[in-house]
Design goal:
Elements: E1 2-6, H1 18-30, E2 37-43, H2 48-51, E3 55-65, E4 68-77, E5 85-90, H3 106-123, E6 130-134, H4 141-147, E7 158-163, E8 193-194, E9 197-198, H5 200-207, E10 210-213, H6 216-224, H7 230-235, E11 240-242, H8 269-284, E12 292-299, H9 308-318, E13 324-331, H10 333-345, E14 349-353, H11 357-366, E15 369-372, H12 382-388, E16 392-396, H13 399-404, E17 415-417, H14 422-437, H15 439-450, H16 457-468
Helix pairs in contact: 1-16, 8-11, 9-10, 9-14
The structure holds adenosine-5'-diphosphate (ADP).
């Protein structure tokens, strides 16, 4: 079975968040299953990974958008060290930029990517059994292959859509239709529509053979609150699934992680974590004798990042400075500024602004607790990385966090709170502090968390079973 994953992100080529981690790992684990050939197709980015690896050109052609021709080139990575074949779609002027997101013409970019990838697969008559689309950026694929004559060779190919984040649906005005490849019968255009706009995520839900959310908990939430798509997802419920993400345990391994100054395993976790903590605390001017609470993530409302200033002030004041907090992330400029100001007021608080893969690994290893006050968390990978590194997650009870972190009061691996608020998070942090003082219990939790199996094997098989059932 030949599977093509179409995605804007794939670690280590380009990663903004969990989507990159998933697309960098899932195909690798699928390729370990006999009979499966999983590949990744993504845009070409002007980034370090692309510049420092060798690629060969496998296709050259043209697509038209709004009557303008664009040259397309598909490049294949020469070696397969990633564990899968990697294909990059390059379109000078559209898909040759540094970052996956944030450009004024992003709807056109996403459309060009999907158009060019399908044009290549059709023109080369490549064997394709499954097209696996990730998020709204590739959500038009199931519609395009059925309704555009240009992709006739792909008609009938199984399509699966994964919703990593339902907050972004990719809506665009109907004027953008002129950027689409010609459609066979305009009577089918309604499949693209939701609420008077072209909605790629809605089109994916309508047209894919099946779709899934990245946890069962998140799928249940989408059925009642999906930014206007609730009734659609309820109507299409028969082909809706929840498949929890895994983590790449080869990359995320405290015994071998090249980003860590000190490696450790379960039997050496306490010393290993203490040494890593000492390094991080020294670098950021924090006292290593205090418990360390970390936060890593985008500064966005979904992550509850706007709660951070109140969490920092309240927890430090209420405990008379008996804890340290370190935050790594970027996003909302107002929040970045507020947090920078708080570093000047509180010596117990440190901030790493920007995206820093190495530092994120160090914080997972160094922290005693990891904060996730998320409003929305489709799956959440941070809590799984934290547990693998012997760190106790403190999570709001939502989405994938519900599925992966039970509270210690019911024998679970972390601390939960229900309401999305700074107060509820701080209450959980106070419980964490008393846990920290119960040394034998804390030690047992560090050890048992490192035993959790979040590896991709099971979920990679679940996806294959899903493909086979259509
Ligand atoms: P989302 O995809 O919604 O951002 P996930 O929990 O699924 O959230 O995945 C987040 C991933 O991004 C994790 O691997 C996390 O470590 C990483 N990450 C988030 N922010 C940063 C940052 N500033 N620097 C390094 N890694 C980050």
């Amino acid at each position: 079975m030949v599977i093509y994953h179409l995605s804007m992100e794939c670690f280590p080529v380009a990663k903004v968040g969990g989507l990159g981690d998933v697309v960098g790992a899932l195909p690798k684990y699928q390729n370990k299953i006999p009979g499966i050939q999983a590949r990744v197709v993504m845009p070409w980015y002007n980034r370090e990974y692309v510049r420092s690896h060798e690629f060969e050109s496998v296709f050259e052609g043209w697509i038209h958008q709004n009557q303008t021709p664009y040259a397309v080139e598909v490049l294949k990575q020469k070696d397969s060290t990633l564990g899968f074949e990697l294909y990059l779609v390059r379109i000078p002027g559209l898909l040759d930029r540094e970052n996956p997101y944030g450009y004024w013409d992003e709807s056109q970019q996403y459309l060009a990517f999907q158009h060019a990838a399908l044009h290549w697969l059709s023109a080369m008559s490549r064997k394709v059994d499954v097209l696996h689309c990730h998020d709204s950026h590739t959500g038009l694929v199931p519609f395009l292959i059925e309704h555009c004559p240009e992709f006739e060779p792909l008609r009938g190919v199984r399509t699966i859509g994964t919703i990593h984040n339902g907050e972004y649906q990719g809506q665009m005005h109907w004027e953008m239709l002129s950027y689409f490849p010609p459609v066979r019968d305009r009577a089918h255009l309604g499949l693209l529509d939701w609420d008077g706009k072209i909605n790629p995520l809605a089109a994916m839900i309508k047209c894919a053979h099946a779709f899934n959310a990245v946890s069962m908990g998140y799928m249940e939430e989408l059925l009642v609150d999906f930014k206007g798509l609730e009734c659609l997802i309820q109507m299409e419920r028969a082909k809706a699934y929840g498949i929890i993400n895994g983590i790449d345990t080869e990359i995320w391994d405290p015994q071998t992680d090249s980003h860590l100054p000190y490696h450790y395993k379960k039997s050496t976790a306490l010393e290993g974590k203490a040494k890593n903590k000492a390094i991080v605390c020294e670098a950021f001017g924090l006292n290593p004798d205090l418990p360390l609470f970390g936060f890593i993530g985008r500064f966005a409302g979904e992550k509850g990042a706007d709660f951070l200033p109140a969490i920092i002030v309240e927890s430090i004041v209420r405990t008379y400075g008996a804890l340290n907090i370190i935050v790594l992330g970027s996003g909302d400029p107002g929040l970045e500024k507020t947090l920078e100001e708080l570093t000047l007021k509180f010596s117990n608080f440190a901030l790493g602004l920007g995206y820093n893969e190495g530092l994120s690994h160090q914080i997972y290893a160094a922290s005693d607790f990891l904060l996730m006050p998320s409003r929305v968390e489709p799956c959440g990978l941070n809590q799984m990385y934290a547990m693998r590194y012997g760190t106790v997650p403190i999570v709001r009870y939502t989405g994938g966090l519900k599925d992966t972190v039970k509270d210690i009061s019911s024998g679970g691996a972390g601390l939960n709170f229900t309401y999305a608020s700074s107060e509820a998070c701080v209450e959980a942090m106070l419980r964490a502090l008393s846990l920290y003082q119960q040394v034998p219990t804390m030690k047992a939790l560090v050890h048992s968390n490192m035993d959790f199996d979040f590896s991709w094997e099971r979920s990679a098989k679940n996806y294959v079973t899903l493909y086979e059932s259509y």
